[in-house]
Specification:
This protein has 2 helices and 18 strands. It has about 240 residues and is of the alpha+beta class. The N and C termini lie far apart (about 70 Å).
Length: about 240
């Protein structure tokens, strides 16, 4: 009995290692392919590349790159002359194609048509899987250089922008502060003002606040997306 147990344990351990390796390979291949969608024919392969797999953001330029490759069995009869992409709210740009769904289109889907034209006159068309339109990620509110939860930066400038945690360049988000409201712990009432500049009168009040006071700033904004955002700061 004692001689068989180590063998069984070794076999189970070996199987577990093999299973883990296969699982790791599957996960790795999925991560590599998550930003590229492929459509294959007998001898033609089409790829649509974008930052996030089959996700579009409303009221923002979503960059799409397309490419086509031929299998060896296509021979000399098929030489790609042109490849184009079409779909709702889609236009050609210098870097590829741009799809910009309008505000209010969240929840809808877009299918793209890829047309490949060959020098012999043949044309092949591929229809993509549906791409889902989502609202833009929520931006962040800054008081000068201070962000939510940090020490107050008693300056006049308020701004709304993206950080580096979005699946596209943060500079793609363009926002404008329409109005702001400021609430301070221990002080009754609300300091209200237009735009992204805190008035000099309100700044004086904030400078006189006790150390440790909590300051909540809420702004209404527009641009790539519209909404209201609130951040908390500590004096």
């Amino acid at each position: 009995m004692s001689s068989t147990k180590p063998k069984l344990i070794f076999q189970k351990t070996k199987k577990m290692k093999i299973f883990k390796i296969i699982l790791l390979l599957l996960l790795t291949s999925n991560l590599i392919a998550q930003d590229k969608e492929r459509y294959n024919d007998d001898f033609l392969s089409i790829a649509i590349e974008m930052p996030e797999m089959r996700i579009l953001y409303e009221n923002r330029d979503n960059l799409l790159n397309i490419s086509a490759s031929l299998d060896k069995k296509a021979g000399d009869n098929y030489i790609i002359e042109d490849i184009t992409l079409s779909g709702n709210w889609t236009r050609k740009s210098e870097g590829g194609y741009i799809c910009k769904p309008p505000m209010g289109s969240r929840g809808k889907t877009v299918r793209f048509m890829t047309n490949v034209k060959f020098k012999n006159g043949d044309v092949k068309t591929f229809q993509s899987d549906p791409y889902t339109i989502k609202p833009n990620p929520r931006p962040n509110l800054y008081w000068g250089v201070a962000s939510d939860g940090s020490k107050a930066n008693i300056v006049s400038k308020l701004s709304v922008r993206y950080e580096n945690n979005v699946p596209f360049p943060p500079s793609k988000g363009k926002f404008e502060v329409k109005s702001h409201q400021i609430m301070v712990s221990g002080i009754k009432g609300v300091l209200v003002g237009p735009g992204d500049k805190i008035s000099s009168k309100h700044l004086e009040i904030l400078k006189l606040c006790k150390k440790g006071s909590k300051i909540a700033i809420s702004v209404s904004y527009k641009g790539t997306s519209n909404g209201r955002i609130t951040a908390m700061f500590v004096k």
